[in-house]
Amino acid sequence: VQLQASGGGLVQAGGSLRLSCAATEWIFSLDLMGWYRQTPGKQRELVATITSGGARNYADSVKGRFSISRDNANRNTVYLQMNSVGPEDTAVYYCKALRVVVSGGTTREYDYWGQGTKVTVSS
To answer: What single DSSP character describes residue 24?
Structure first.
């Protein structure tokens, strides 16, 4: 699975931005897709995820402001709608896909990452 993240850029505090993650496979075949972010010197952190069944999970810091969704028409794109952004949202945002394979009683997880798209929020 290859992932291509896009949509980052410079936005003023209080503004909105939408990130896109295009996958080379049908996203409904993947067990989970999500957005993570990283700032210099810090570990990559979860922002939002969505399972193949549509269950969503958000970091406390973005609840009520960010929304993850899927393109149900094209079925290969996941979005992150970012509203009411603040300087604390400045980071490189990465798209991730997870595939879980169960075979012969063994469960394996495969992570796939996009290249990252930079979001800068000016105050």
So the answer is: S
Structural contact between residues 84 and 72, judged by C-beta atoms closer than 8 angstroms: no
Residue 117 has pLDDT above 90, yes or no: yes
Q: Which residues pair with 36 in a beta bridge?
A: 46, 94
Sign for the CA dihedral angle at 77, 73, 31, 103 comes to negative
Which residues make Cβ contacts (< 8 Å) with residue 55, sequence separation at least 6?
none
Task: Kindly state the tokens that stand for 45.
Answer: 């952190």
Q: How remote is the C-alpha of 61 from its chain's centroid?
A: 15
Please give the backbone phi and psi of residue 54, each rounded to the nearest 5 degrees, phi first: 95, 5
Q: What is the tens place of the pLDDT at every residue in 27-58? A: 778 899 999 999 999 999 999 999 989 999 99
Answer yes or no: are the C-beta atoms of 4 and 21 closer than 8 Å: yes
Q: How many CB atoms lie within 10 A of CB 41?
A: 5
**pLDDT above 90 for 72:** no
Coil, helix or strand for 1? coil
Whole-angstrom CA distances from 81 to 92, 93, 105, 107, 110 are 15, 12, 38, 32, 26
